[in-house]
């Protein structure tokens, strides 16, 4: 018999549905404090539907996009749970909406900074977009590493480069283990 989509899931059900070992789920609970299954007598875990969706997003970023645990923790810190849930579900529109909301929260909207009708960019600032890297699309043409005209890296681009370096070092470590 099939469970309701709103029903709680045991660790074995979640592990089977997401093709993950149970010990990985337990480990992720220690690394991502956003994963909070209910625990009943004897320590049995029961995952809420939102926990399962979040785990799905974490799995996607770690296994399919090659992020490190620290990288995913940073994404969660900066963008929230709903961002990773949207990424895990492949909901590009929701990811873009969250990124635009975040941009709107950090920069006050003055009449000069209202979106243009063509929605290509905000007047005076580049339009906030989620990184194409989330979906394996590489880097967008307009996401160059150098700020226009200054010759120095912006804080955001420096963070992206540092994250890419950590990802490359992790890949090298994994390759060295295989050899």
Short description:
The protein has three domains: 1-90, Multidrug-efflux Transporter Regulator, Chain: A, Domain 2; 93-137, no CATH class; 144-179, no CATH class. The chain is 52% helix and 4% strand.
Structure commentary:
- This is MerR family transcriptional regulator.
- Keywords: DNA-binding.
- Pfam families: MerR_1.
- With 179 residues, this protein is mainly alpha-helical.
- It has 3 domains: 1-90, Orthogonal Bundle (Multidrug-efflux Transporter Regulator, Chain: A, Domain 2), CATH 1.10.1660.10; 93-137, no CATH class; 144-179, no CATH class.
- 52% of the residues lie in helices and 4% in strands.
- It has 7 helices and 3 strands.
- It has helices at residues 11-18, 22-31, 49-64, 69-79, 81-89, 92-106, 155-178, and strands spanning 9-10, 38-39, 45-47.
- A 3-stranded antiparallel β-sheet has the order 1-3-2.
- Helix 3 packs across helix 5 (81-89), helix 4 crosses helix 5 (81-89) and helix 5 (81-89) runs antiparallel to helix 6.
- The longest helix has 24 residues, at 155-178.
- The radius of gyration is 19 Å and the shape is globular.
- The model is unreliable at 114-130 and 134-149 (pLDDT under 50).
